[in-house]
Amino acid sequence: MTPEPTDLDLADDAALFAALRRTWEGVDPAPVGLVDDMVAAVASADLGREYALLTLVEADSTAAVRGDADMLTLQFSDGHTNVLVHVTPREGGAHRLDGWADGEVAEVHLIQQDAETRTTSDGGRFAFDDVEGGVSRLRILLTAAPSPDAGLELLTPRFEI
């Protein structure tokens, strides 16, 4: 059985580590800004796939004439896959979500709170009927990666329906 370290042993270890740190700081100091650069690199790792770029394309300017004043068009892109989404209000407070994605889309999931609805894609086109209002996001599953450095999934940022 090994004896428990004493306060003297711990003090010796702390002094040894402090001396070692001073030696390395003198011989090979860390580059200026290294800590900030590492924090930024870790914080942004894989954000391109996790949080695709969200752009509000336009609220349909002719919608008031047609009676769909709340129609909204959104565009998502992660640099490899692009998705265009139209959200149109329906009677009774529900909405219809129509979307188009480039690439080989296997299926699309609409995520709202704890519920997830799935649909298949026909040539990149997909739709969800009777979508309730609220915070939503889409998970687009691809059958093939659009490029060697791209993944098989696009997860959009949250958007309000």
What labels would you give this structure?
5-stranded antiparallel sheet; 24% helix; 10 strands; alpha+beta; 161 residues; 4 helices
Structural write-up:
It is a single chain. By secondary structure, this protein is α+β, with helices and mostly antiparallel strands. It contains four helices and ten strands. Helix content is 24%, strand content 39%. A five-stranded antiparallel β-sheet has the order 1-2-3-4-7, with no helix packed on it. Strands 5, 6, 8, 9 and 10 form a five-stranded antiparallel β-sheet that branches. The longest helix is centred in the first third of the chain and has 21 residues, at 7-27. The radius of gyration is 26 Å and the shape is elongated. The chain starts with 6 loop residues before the first helix and ends with a strand.
TL;DR?
The chain has 161 residues and is an alpha+beta fold. The chain contains 4 helices and 10 strands. A hairpin with a 2-residue loop joins strand 5 (105-112) and strand 6.
SSE map:
Elements: H1 7-27, H2 34-43, H3 47-50, E1 53-59, H4 63-66, E2 72-77, E3 82-89, E4 95-101, E5 105-112, E6 115-120, E7 125-131, E8 135-142, E9 153-155, E10 159-160
Antiparallel strand pairs: 1-2, 2-3, 3-4, 4-7, 5-6, 5-8, 8-9, 8-10
